[in-house]
Amino acid sequence: MEVEKIVALAILIALASGGVSGDPDYHDALSKSLLFFQGQRSGKLPPDQSLTWRANSGLADGSAENVDLTGGYYDAGDNVKFGLPMAFTTTMLAWSVLEFGRWMPKELNHAREAVRWGTDYLLKASAPLPSALYVQVGDPNADHDCWERPEDMSTPRSVFKVTPSTPGTEVAAETAAALVAASLVFKHVDVGYSKKLLQTAKKAFAFADRYRGNYSDSLASVVCPFYCSYTGFQDELLWGAAWLYKATRNSSYLSFAHSLGINYNSETFSWDSKIPGAAVLLARESVVDENEAASGFREQAERFVCNVLPKSSSVSVNYTPGGLLYMLNGSNMQYVTSTTFLLSTYAKYLKTSSQTMKCGDVVVTSLRLRKLVKKQVDYILGDNPSRMSYMVGYGDEFPRRIHHRGSSIPSFRLNAEAIGCDEGFQFYYDDKPNPNELTGAVVGGPDENDKFTDDREDYSQSEPTTYINAPLVGTLSYLTASFRPRERCLSVKN
């Protein structure tokens, strides 16, 4: 009988622990995914900073032009503040709160804090409008030649901006989207701040529209090859207009979105490609609110769904043998998290309106989309051929040697002596696990054959980014409500 007790107890422990042996703990993953953003903070850290291995950094940012550009987020494992991915990250954090905030009650304040850390910076960057918009702090070429903690940065903190004569429509329109989405987040909790965000968003959008041009042309030497805009600026104008329409209900913004004439298939939603996101955002007007003026966007949104849905007659993406959506070799997980966010959102719209859609002869229900989302997120959290969680700090097995300067070098709080540009590479090439856990960070992920090398030098697989995590916040909140762990009770006979 004692053996039976031990076996039953072992089963209970395995099931309760979640992860690959049972139902994933989506709430735990959600908490960790938000904690990650604390590790990416630039500027003066608040007293309640939980990742205490980080310290203040970039406190003189903007001084090159006598402006205050402190704060904001480092985009990935480097120490540069790139405006385009930072603004997209902020937009997606805000959208996560707007769509799924009611399912993250214990984490809602943390999610708002993550949004505000981004918008506080973006407001500073937008202060010179309509004459200029600051879009980057840090020389990326010099930064990428160094391996330094953010607290030790010795590379130039150069400041870059777009102006009427050197335009950057993509980054200006994305900044507008971030500010307006955040204005909705704070609409009922900080009215004054919300109004300021919306007013600044309108200025940023007007600037983007009036002075049209690719920011990767104007600032090619410092944004390429890091964050070149490969899709042009039309999609960002659509994205910004969609958010302004959602916030203001001013039909001129919906008319503007229609006037762009964007109507083609796309399966990629990312910091660079906004068409699927804008289509899903505007599709709500048709699906839920029955606004015929938005029916064209519903059609585009459903084409996107069919493009990524397995067994759809129009599926145009690949999946690994283990079932992971696979689009590109570099940082593929960003497309997994952004796609699953849109699928979660559209599933919610279908559920709310008690509707289905079709991909050819395939009937697509809200439940079918939720199951696909769950499969992708479960893969991230450890239900994959490698039995590896790709979120740092979640589960027993996760990447230990991520491509991240601050995580890989002993903490400033333990060793306050500066570690120089070249000196830091001793930690880059060291095969030991990183000394500081960047909890919640989701890395670029495995290759097309589900193979993953926990190698700091392989940045395409091992580097985390803010725009991988930001969409996942909303999706995890959705799964927390949609797939609650089953209550299990095992009786043990005496």
Automatic annotation (TrEMBL):
Superkingdom in the source lineage: Eukaryota
Please write the reaction equations for the catalytic activity of this protein.
Endohydrolysis of (1->4)-beta-D-glucosidic linkages in cellulose, lichenin and cereal beta-D-glucans
Alphabetically ordered keywords of this record: Carbohydrate metabolism, Cellulose degradation, Glycosidase, Hydrolase, Polysaccharide degradation, Signal
Active site per the UniProt annotation:
H403, D454, E463
A single Gene Ontology MF term assigned here is:
cellulase activity
Signal peptide per UniProt = 1-22
Q: What is its EC number?
A: 3.2.1.4
What Gene3D superfamilies is this protein classified in?
A: 1.50.10.10
Enumerate the Gene Ontology biological process terms: cellulose catabolic process
InterPro entries from the UniProt entry: 6-hairpin_glycosidase_sf (IPR008928), 6hp_glycosidase-like_sf (IPR012341), Glyco_hydro_9 (IPR001701), Glyco_hydro_9_Asp/Glu_AS (IPR033126), Glyco_hydro_9_His_AS (IPR018221)
Query: Broadest EC class?
Result: hydrolase
Q: Where is the Glycoside hydrolase family domain?
A: 26-476
Q: Which SUPFAM superfamilies match?
A: Six-hairpin glycosidases (SSF48208)
> Hydrolase: is it a keyword of this entry?
yes
Task: Please state which protein family the record places this protein in.
Answer: Belongs to the glycosyl hydrolase 9 (cellulase E) family.
Protein name per Swiss-Prot or TrEMBL: Endoglucanase
Which species is the source of this protein?
Musa troglodytarum
Q: What is the lineage of its organism?
A: Eukaryota, Viridiplantae, Streptophyta, Embryophyta, Tracheophyta
